[in-house]
Design a protein that fits this description.
There is one protein chain. α2 packs antiparallel against α4 and α4 packs antiparallel against α5. The protein has 160 residues and is mainly α. It is elongated, with a radius of gyration of 17 Å.
Amino acid sequence: MKILREIFGYLLGGVVFVGLLPLLMWIVSCRPALWPVGALQLIASAVLIIVGLAMSVWAIIYMRHIGDGNPMDAFNNEIAPRTKHLMTDGPYRISRNPMLTGIFLYLIGCGIWLLTWQALVFFVVFVLIMLLQVRSEEKRLRRDFGEEYESYCKRTGRFW
């Protein structure tokens, strides 16, 4: 059963963050043509999309192996098994939320590709919602890991 919950968590995260969010961004942008885009726009977008996805995947793999758990925890509702160990190295040395930082970079890349004000508004709203999620998660981490987490917060930024 645990493996099914983990698979479900990863699939749900991939569908929502990598598929659904850019689709919604495109829809609220009044569905602009996706091609052609300028060379500089294409390069900037592609770099941010690739770096963002790579950072998120690195964090997920690291979390699975070092944290012995899964990232899918939404507003204190455990969707998949939570991590058992506080992670402070690897991608978690760069950011306390490297998966989300990666998704932010990915969505910025998608927004540059679309280049609409609606995409910017969508991104800002998404960031505000995720800030609420992160604050909720931070309360749980403080409860679960106490002083160790507090010390980590002092030396590592929330997103960078």
